[in-house]
User: Fold this.
Amino acid sequence: MDKTNSSNGLSAYEAARLLAEDGPNALPGGQRRTWLHIVWDAAHEPMFLLLFAAGLLYLILGEPREGLFLFAMVLLMVGLTLYQEGKTERALEALRDISTPHALVLRDGERRQIDSREVVRGDLLLLAEGDRIAADGLLLSGSDLQVDESLLTGESVPVRKIAISAANHDGAGAGKSSQPGDHRARPGGDDLPYVYSGTLTVQGHGIVRVTQTGARSEIGRIGSALQALTTESSPLQKQTARMVTMFALLGLSLSLLLVLVYGWLHGDWLQALLAGIALAMSMLPEEFPVVLTVFPALGAWRLARQHVLTRRISAIETLGATSVLCVDKTGTLTENRMTVARLYAGGESLTIDYEQTTLPEFVHALVEFSILGSAVAPVDPMEKAFHRLGQHFLQDTEHLHRDWTLVQEYPLTPALRAMAQVWKAVDQDDYVVAAKGAPEAVIDLCHLDAARQQLISEAAQTMARQGLRVLGVAQASFSGTQWPDSEHDFDFVFLGLIGLADPLRADIPDAMRQCHQAGIRVIMITGDYPLTASTIARQACIAAGETLTGDELAGIDDTELARRIQAVTVCARIAPEQKLRIVQALKANGAIVAMTGDGVNDAPALKAAHVGIAMGQRGTDVAREAASLVLLDDRFSSIVHAVRLGRRIFSNMQKAMSYVLAMHVPIAGMALLPVLLGWPILLYPMHIVFLELIIDPACSLAFENEPAELDSMQTAPRNPKAALFGGWTVALATLQGLGALAATMAAYGWALHALPEAQARAFGFSSLIIANLALIFSNRSRNHSIIESLRASNPILWVVTGATLGLLALALYLPYLMDVFRFGHLSPTQLALACGVGLGSVLWFELLKLAQRRAQ
Assistant:
């Protein structure tokens, strides 16, 4: 039995039963990694394999304490990996929950916005332009519905969908369609009443009864092929993979050389093998992939907390380089809370006072037809404002027509910026036509003489100078049954103008000043009247510049547009399709462009921009899926927060990778050079493990948690061609590492002459640990000294520092650990001297930063 009521939809109880029976409306795969998966992946990492091999060697050598210690360190590092990757997985899971598509369904006779995974067979799915269809279904009713099925068919031309007849969807045919595994028409037909999960509504609206969900849908049948697809690595990932491979090959070569040299000089091949393992561990920069995984994931999570959803992780890297922000006015710069402020009719102007309860008679028809030109149940803030105006002032008059029937619609088009609706009145034979739109478009529909046009245009400009959005309204009547092809065929009479106020968001001026300080140019793009747009731009503190209209844009070629756009800060009367040309012109001038949008026609511009930003509250699914970022609150200030956070994430990734490379230089050097010089070995595998316990949390947690540089939003956008980790960054990190290596070599060399071997090892190792901490603090800031950077709060950094010093104290003075690490007892004076040598490397680090700043 079909449980779907044609008017009320499923009941909540029946929907819950079907959800439990069929499972969620989702494709197989995409589950989050469990702790077992993380442990299994970690067990295959070279570092863990080397640690395990070293532990076995110690057991073979008859040194169980060292072997058991290394096995304990393996467990500890697995625990740290679980914490790091678990935090990353939780961040990604939170993002998945936020970004899950939603569907509008009819349940118990009410419209409900639900998670698309909760859609079940029999649901009545309400489709609107721009929606991604949540499940396969049968189109029961619709108006001019066109669907992009390229995801399934590869055909880019939208398919027109025609609703089934009442006989079909009430009869057996419809019942058959709701059964799993039924044989039905495939996507791509021009006259089929079926729609399919994953396809996009590009025009019109309709009501669909869901027939298949999840793996049983058309896209579910090809789900296995989709799961087999692999994601292409980003340029940064490829660059890092090459660097890790290079280090691994170099480490393997040097490790073999070290084993041969030590074994030949000392004849102790097992000790030689341990020294080789230590060198291999020291040369393996396993933290690079960790940084590339943890930072973007946690960065995306941080962006989500700033009400910005990241759909493409690569956008985080691009955010900091953004040089031009193209933003919509309505809802982004303004509150999108429109109120009718002024009316103009019959040559007279009226300011609306909502404290009063009546309106003069001369504006009644204007208000009446503004409502007739709007949706019956409006969602657009402008149309809601018209309805509120009518309900407030015309509630008990003959001007509100709840019993009239809408029979024909003429939507707004790029060629005519006005829409019209045809109504069947209950008390007259002729049809009533209401039109509203841009003043110039409505004037054109009314075929007014030049004098009247001039008078109305002046009235519109007066409203526009006050920052009001101005619309014209007209009326007509029609008798007949053959609807005209165009609104121009109606005999419209001009009724007047309506001015709507949409207050500027309170945080816009401050956010705009931050953009100016950060070297980011802001261009406002709107469909509003040019004078209205210019007034709002001044109120928003957008830099003064030229205004470009849609008509002007249409009349120039791309070369001229690229020249003009350099001085433009306001684009008015712009059609969504024209945004793409604006993006392309800015890109042709070398700008890194971020573009906002919300409609279906905005998708090409969003996709073409370096960072497409879709509106989360009022945006369509098409726009959201074309974009890199989604504003969950539709606020411009959230974009500015995202830029600041994008700069912080990029900077912190650079700092972390610089620190990792710099620290591996002294570790590898101290694993190799003492052997080549005939000195006693300083670093055995347990020492490398100790250092890794510092490096891992430092790079993946402490640096990720670093606050933004104090002047991060006072500098120009970075060069987008500059690599995250290359050129001067690599050179600086290498020089830092060589400085730490020189300090540690000097400390160990002096200690070998002044102290017994075990004490010398403790002395040299202490210097290396302190040099490591100095590297961490020095790399906190590129533009400020180590003293200045201490002002910035980072609790995790101090936890890592305290834990490092505590572990060092245990290794130096706890007898069991002293034996494991082969340390001798250091007096407080000797320890202070060792720490002083390590800290001495700070001077070298600061000189390098000073040289870098002068070079820039």
